[in-house]
Amino acid sequence: MFPPAELPLEDALAEWRRIRVSDDAWMLNCFVARAGQDVDVEPLAVVDGPEERQGGVVYREGETKLRCGGARIPSVDEVAQFIRSCREQGRRFKATAGLHHAFATGGEHGFLNLLAACVFGDEEKMLAARDVALDADSFRANGRVADAEACALVRRDLFASIGSCSFDEPVGELKVIGIL
Fold it and tell me: How far is residue 73's CA from residue 167's CA, in Å, rounded to a whole number?
């Protein structure tokens, strides 16, 4: 819901409410608003400059928040280094901006590629992988396999979530490629 979508607040809240009652609601986390906006929904994330607060958790750009698009798209090497740094320092991060596609496309990073880099390491290769699949039993990338427990540990300890100004684009793409 957050810019660059730039929906008027009432339209964004209506879209939020529509998604919250849909079959895909399990994939939606926080409504994201700017600091100073009067928004009465839960869960709520508030962006104030380089910080995003989600309840008691603060994500700070460059430290625990990875901006993957917008005015500047970081290189594969920069994203890989960010992931390695968070892993080595025990920091949990959120990735945001530009994550509309499952796979790296047109110079943009893919959210499934990002997950693969977090789950399997070998970040540079995973960020470019096309051989990625997900089903009820496993997550697979470039011949490597992780079960649901391994993925849950990564989500708990390293990769908190992705942010996107569109809900329908990534969900629609997951449906097209047969994951949902």
Answer: 20
Q: What is the per-residue pLDDT across 105-127, written as a single tens digit (0 to 9) for each?
A: 989 999 999 999 999 999 999 99
Residue 57: which H helix or E strand, with range? strand 57-60
Q: Residue 94 CB: number of other CB atoms within 10 A?
A: 22
Say if residue 3's pLDDT is above 60.
no
CA pair distance 137, 65, nearest whole angstrom: 29
First vs last C-alpha separation in the chain: 22
What is the per-residue pLDDT for 2?
54
**Residue 141: other Cβ atoms inside 10 A:** 23
Closest by CA to 2, choosing from 140, 163, 150, is 163
Decide if 166 contacts 5 (C-beta within 8 A): yes
Residue with tokens 């700070």: 60
With a CB cutoff of 8 Å and minimum separation 6, the contacts of 30 are 43, 44, 45, 54
pTM for the predicted model, two decimal places: 0.91
| Among the listed residues 145, 101, 92, 156, the one whose alpha carbon sits nearest the alpha carbon of residue 127 | 101
Q: Return mean pLDDT, the chain.
A: 92
